[in-house]
Structure prediction request, 216 residues.
Amino acid sequence: MLIHPWDAPTDDAEWQDWLAAHDFGQLAVNGTSGAPPMVQPTHFAYDPARREVLAHLARPNPIWRALEERPTVLLSVVDDYAFIPGPWQAAEDEPPEHGVPTSFYAAVQLTCTAHVVDDPEAKAALLQRQMGHFQPEGGSAPVAAGQAPYGRQLSGLRGLRLEVREVRAKFKYAGKRSEAVQRRICERLAERNGPGDAAARGHQERRRAARSATTR
Prediction:
């Protein structure tokens, strides 16, 4: 993923706050014996204090053999995307039809070392931590090895603890454009108000305000 200086996070808090609200991604794993890479969509829980990601998948999933051969994986999360028509991006001194179309999006990529969790007690603890993330209001029985209602189902899945080694984040929201062009894009996003437009506009306005504060 190419990250220009104007698309980079302003600080670690920016991508951490965004990732805290985006807990579904694509887990990319190297294929076995020269096979193509495998990509597994999955919910996950990111723990910033421990710098680890928690997930679980069904035991028959073909991903396990690939992880045994090479445990280095990439978790990719992308959202808040919007297509930006060319005329919206045209500079003030050029015709609208000369503007270049582009995509806005936020993305975080975590390079991790995968650790498979098979011990029933450890697996139950991992699932309970996930439950606390996704369902903090409770309402479900505790996950405990050997105890109903979930104990018997633990054998049908395997846990994944992803140890985060590197983080790459990108917020592509016209950071290199002039103030006037950025304001124009914000206005057009508000007018169009399509799927993803409000989130994209929010990122653009927030990052523009942060840049203005640092240059004062």
The radius of gyration is 21 Å. The chain has six helices and seven strands.
